[in-house]
Amino acid sequence: MIKKLSTLIGTLTCAGLAAAGPMDQATSAAMLGFSAAHSPDEQAVERRFDADLNAAELREWMQTMASEPNQVGSAHDKANAEFMLHKFRDWGWDASIETFSVLYPIPKHISLQLIAPKQFTARLHEPAIKGDATSDKSAGALPPYNVYGADGDVSGELVYANYGMPEDYKELDRRGVSVKGKIVIARYRGGWRGLKPKLAAEHGAIGCVIYSDPRDDGYFLGDAYPLGGWRPADGVQRGSVADIPIYSGDPLTPGVGATADAQRLPLSEAKTLMKIPVLPISYADAQPLLAALSGPVAPASWRGALPITYHIGPGPAKVHMQVQSDWSLKPIYDVIARIPGSELPDEWVVRGNHHDGWVFGAWDPLSGNSALMAEAKAIGALLKTGWRPRRTLVYASWDGEEPGLLGSTEWVETHAQELKRHAVVYVNSDTNARGFLQANGSHSLQRLVNEVSAGIRDPETDASVQARLRAKLRVDAFQTLAPDEQVKRLGQAAASAADVPIGALGSGSDYTPFLQHLGIATLDLSYEGEADNEGVYHSIYDSFDHFVRFGDPGFVYGIAEAQTVGHLILRVADADVLPLQFSDAAEAFDGYVHELHKLAYDEGEHAQTLEELRRAHAFELASDPTRPVGPPASEAEVPYLNLAPLDDAMARLKRSARAYDQALADADAKGVALDAAQRGQLDTVLQGVEQALTSDDGLPGRPWYKHLIYAPGLYTGYGAKTIPGVREAIEQRRWDETAQYIGITARAIENYCDRLDAATALLRH
């Protein structure tokens, strides 16, 4: 995955806390989307599916696919695609490889030296670790680098910028520290890595170095590899620095598939490429650089776990960095497998995980890809018994996810019109390991996730995975010393009969083009929270040996992942009507609108209080004269923002959602059976519901992102921004744009309601 791990169950709000209780399949007469008569048949199919899942096969597939370097352009990446192609065909799928040609720069030369006040040359290399059978198989592996950073040969004073996020630059300004003409060093975390060089360049820096601090994923959290699972001193986090919040996929073909004959932008016009050179380094290489800095001592929250005093600079540390790359096109290989639907072949249930890694990629992504393969094999076994899905299944193993969601985005852009007409849901996974279910996505699928998770057994406790997650959320709320409102509300939901809320999706994996570019209802599912994989994220040490020690030793959570995703896929494929429920979505969206009201109020209060403090010279009086910190910059007054159109749209949505959910429940209770034509009409309406939340014009400054409810933040990267057109306009104090997107978003929600009302009418009449 190109993302950093999100917190448990993603970006959560009070969404869904007022929803009805979960539909445990052990107690409900019918599952969502199924008649009471059809539900037992579906449960029998799922039991047969489970019987064909085999942990030893997941282990074998991962060991094979993680045996050699697996990055884009490598021989083993292509071999893995061909390996899966043959497996899918053996299992009865109609499978092929779809190839695209993408810009994928690889380093020809990289170097980093401290040239003053001392001399030091960074290693920029990850040595083999005793006991890890693949860590010394570096032939064919690329050195640690940040793909899509600019080439350059630059020297300059060093400035430490903490995580390199917008608030960090405000703190530098308060201390009179400029990065103009300098080289920024920032630590990983705190935000999408691509924002670090982007913001550094916007503030005038000529280069950017990103390092992994042991406080964030090294010895501060646990024993370093090989004693424990956490990042060793020489471990380096590779990664993309493409400006994905602008658009994902091939930088040269935004909006169209990167086929052989596609028209491509010149490099100089590609908006997602960085403007300055970037290098990732280990904390062993970072320590001499940071130790050579002087200037102000870093604020407490900026200090990592290295045995040094953290200074900001600038200087006297001065560094010289070089990056030279081969900027040619490379092939990527998407494995696409299909099973035509027996009754509704024009409705597609799409499932995906990627297969490319930064080196061996055992955890990221082969843990999730192995589960996908297990699902495909078990579905193939069902085919041999005469079962056929009612709707068409499309299984995809994407290539090129790590550089910037290349394989999925190029496939989606190539098949955009077909997908808009036919795709009913996209289900994604990426990494997987021991722990708790994490579910994020379209809230119309929240009830379905709750139903499925109530029927999956946790392999460590034998409770349902939903029961275990509820316990986790309740304990977190109890044990947190000062829980915020989100933690409290999640604990309350977990203790009640309400559905467990799912999170909103930002970016960071292959769901992005499906949900945020096309508006297809989407889920991202995984297990995590107990394994120690995060320390080897995007390093050479993300190996099979590491995973079987610290990830999922028995591959039992791989089986749980295959069951969870497989059951969900089968239910969507076989349901009498698409298993969507909208009260959860209405509650989620209403929560987002309430957050906008609070944001507008808080921004106004903050600006007013700041001005009062500035007039009173409070910051100067409170500052240590020997360590001066100036006042924050003034903020413009917040005008009155009329959010009434959104409030009105939300009031209607809650009515429309309740009406549809009640009509569906009434039809089930009365045993109303829709004929094939009526079911087809209803599915056609429901299939386009999520697309109603998109805008052809997209979001401000980034028209590729079209979803008006979920998007990655322009200055958070992976993190979700809900109702982004309005939220980011408020945050960035663009008041005319705020008013514009209040209206645009309200109209989209009204269109969503129109779809729901049409579906309700079909059910009632």
Tell me about this structure:
By secondary structure, the protein is α/β, with parallel strands linked by helices. It has 23 helices and 18 strands. The chain has a seven-stranded mixed β-sheet, with helices on both faces. A seven-stranded mixed β-sheet has the order 3-2-10-5-6-7-9. A two-stranded parallel sheet has the order 4-8. Helix 2 crosses helix 8. The longest helix is centred in the C-terminal third of the chain and has 33 residues, at 583-615. It is globular. It starts with 38 loop residues before the first helix and ends with a helix.
**DSSP strand (E) fraction?**
15-25%
Question: How much helicity do the residues have?
Answer: 25-40%
**Head-to-tail CA distance between termini:** 46 Å
The number of distinct β-strands equals 18
Query: What's the number of helices?
Result: 23
Label the structural class: alpha/beta
Strand arrangement, major sheet: 1-11-13-12-14-16-15
Q: Overall 3D geometry?
A: globular
Major sheet size, sense and barrel closure: 7 strands, mixed
The residue ranges in which pLDDT falls below 50 over 5 or more consecutive positions are: 4-28
Whole-angstrom Rg? 26 Å
Mean of residue pLDDT values: 94
Tell me the layout of helices and strands.
Elements (H helix, E strand, L loop, with lengths): L38 H13 L3 H11 L9 H16 L3 E10 L2 E11 L3 E2 L24 E2 L4 E9 L5 H9 L8 E5 L7 H8 L4 E5 L2 H4 L21 E2 L37 E4 L1 H9 L26 E9 L2 E11 L4 E11 L7 H23 L6 E8 L2 H4 L1 H9 L1 H7 E6 L6 E7 L4 H8 L11 H15 L5 H11 L16 H7 L3 E8 L14 H7 L5 H19 L8 H33 L2 H5 L21 H26 L6 H12 L22 E3 L7 E3 L1 H8 L3 H30 L1
